[in-house]
Write a structure and sequence with these properties.
Layout (H helix, E strand, L loop, with lengths): L8 H9 L5 H19 L2 E4 L1 H16 L11 E5 L26 H8 L3 E6 L11 E2 L3 E2 L15 H8 L5 E6 L5 H7 L2 E4 L19 E6 L2 H11 L29 E4 L10 H16 L3 E4 L5 H26 L6 H10 L4 H24 L3 E5 L12 E4 L2 E4 H6 L3 H6 L3 E8 L5 E7 L5 H15 L16
Parallel strand pairs: 2-3, 2-6, 9-10, 9-11
Antiparallel strand pairs: 1-3, 4-5, 6-8, 7-8, 7-14, 11-15, 12-13, 14-15
Length: about 475
């Protein structure tokens, strides 16, 4: 079946369970597409063909014996090159770890493999996940399958490009300042950042652990739901892990938005908003209202305070993580990450304390909104569509702002408050690049956020209509 890459995980699972397609066929199909398209996209840093084929054969034998592990049985996946994979090179996007091969899987990877998923390779990341473009000085830039001269977002840019181009139906990502949602937005995918502590961080290289999240990037919300059914689990060996009531993320996905209260604050602008992003937000709100949701004007926390508090915490934690390593291996770091880490040394104790206090105040303000007025709030995911790889600034109206600010400003609030957030595609802008909005819900309400995302995604831009031009490059 030559069009397997267009099918949802649920559809692939049904084929596998019925023995109409084998895990080996799925994995070989994915590897052929990677071989054909990765030279153009640079979505994978490492491809684990031999290991993947061996695992797929074992999983095929299991199906032949009547043992089906569940919907991920035999599904080829990518794992962000920030997260450990036993026997597969894991570089963290750094020259320092160019030959690093972990002996054990990270906890999320172990859970995915136990569910039958097959890791076909490591998707590219910005160096140490400290950037929003995945323009990596050591492994080269990853490219957006909608327009190859543009970034796929970051830091999980390889995952976004790989999923959008149909190399794999699912990849893990990580999100500290937006690194799951930004690539999803740039590439026309769905990215889900769970509640902090919902998915184990054990085995993922830290950037700022109190802000770090691991989650899925997939073609659709239901595919993210299937991944979350496996990824969501308490890990007693991860100090950041928290216990949540066990729930099936796939149950109730088709429940309509009728009666849902969605908040919007158009004055919350941590960066100037481009025309395409503004139009996408308008369209998303209109679709939600047509679907029966109540749109409510709210006052979100001060955008400047959110940006300052998140930036201070991220820099302080990144400084602690990298201080000694940077001092010992400074020339091995890329210029952009080195500059950010140099800036992190300037974070002082009073500034850090103010950021910690601001986090509590902002989190409480959001909690009151959920208690009193709304079920979720909506924001643009990015201020612009994906910039060119060589761009350092973008033009928004009469203002010229840094690329990082344009990509990451609207995603910081959910990381700071640790709330579940889904980025959903809204259609193509006039420049031919995807647009996106994000929905954020209360702490622990992850399944409901995925449900709301699915309801809006289906009406805005169904997965069947998302076929980036680069997905057919070099293929017959």
């Amino acid at each position: 079946m030559s069009q397997l890459h267009h099918l949802s995980i649920a559809d692939l699972a049904a084929l596998v369970r019925a023995r109409r397609v084998s895990p080996l066929e799925l994995v070989e199909h994915a590897l052929r597409r990677i071989d054909a398209l990765n030279p153009s996209l640079n979505a994978f840093t490492t491809v684990a063909s031999e290991q993947a084929i061996e695992e797929a054969r074992l999983l095929t034998d299991e199906i032949a014996r009547g043992h089906w592990r569940g919907p991920l049985h035999g599904i080829p996946i990518g794992v962000k090159d920030l997260t450990d994979t036993a026997g597969i090179r894991t570089t963290y996007g750094s020259r320092l770890f160019a030959d690093h091969v972990p002996v054990a899987d990270a906890e999320p990877v172990a859970r995915l493999r136990a569910a039958g998923a097959v890791v076909v390779g490591k998707t590219a990341t910005h160096e140490f996940a400290f950037g929003a473009t995945t323009d990596n000085p050591h492994f080269g830039p990853s490219r957006n399958p909608w327009q190859l001269e543009c970034v796929p977002g970051g830091s999980s840019g390889g995952a976004g490009a790989a999923v959008a181009a149909g190399l794999v139906p699912l990849s893990t990502g990580s999100d500290t300042g937006g690194s799951i949602r930004i690539p999803a937005a740039a590439c026309g995918c769905v990215g889900f950042k769970p509640t902090h502590g919902r998915v184990s961080l054990r085995g993922t290289y830290p950037l700022a652990p109190s802000l770090d999240h691991v989650g899925p990037i997939a073609r659709s919300s239901p595919d993210c739901a299937l991944a979350m059914n496996v990824l969501s689990a308490f890990d007693r060996e991860d100090p950041w892990s928290r216990r949540f009531t066990r729930e099936d993320f796939s149950v109730g996905l088709e429940r309509p938005l009728r009666g849902t209260r969605i908040g919007v604050d158009r004055s919350h602008c941590p960066a100037p908003l481009g025309d395409a992003a503004s139009a996408a937000l308008d369209r998303a709100l209109a679709v939600a209202a047509e679907s029966g949701a109540e749109i409510i004007d709210v006052h979100l926390p001060d955008a400047a305070e959110v940006t300052l508090a998140t930036s201070m915490l991220l820099l302080a934690e990144a400084h602690v993580q990298h201080r000694d390593q940077l001092a010992a291996h400074r020339p091995e770091y890329g210029l952009d990450v080195r500059a950010q880490l140099d800036a992190s040394a300037a974070v002082d104790v009073p500034g850090l304390v103010r950021a910690l206090h601001a986090r509590e105040r902002i989190t409480r303000q959001i909690e009151f909104l959920f208690e009193q007025k709304i079920d979720a709030f909506v924001l643009p995911t990015m201020a612009v569509t994906a910039p060119r790889i060589d761009a350092t600034t973008v033009q928004i109206g009469e203002l010229e702002i840094p690329v990082g600010m344009a990509l990451a400003s609207f995603t910081l609030l959910a990381d700071l408050t640790r709330l579940p957030t889904i980025a959903i595609p809204c259609g193509l802008a006039r420049d031919g690049l995807p647009t996106s909005v994000q929905l954020t819900g209360p702490y622990g309400a992850d399944a409901n956020v995925v449900r709301m995302g699915h309801a809006m995604e289906s009406a805005l831009w169904p997965p069947s209509e998302r076929r980036p031009p680069a997905s057919s490059l070099a293929l017959t």
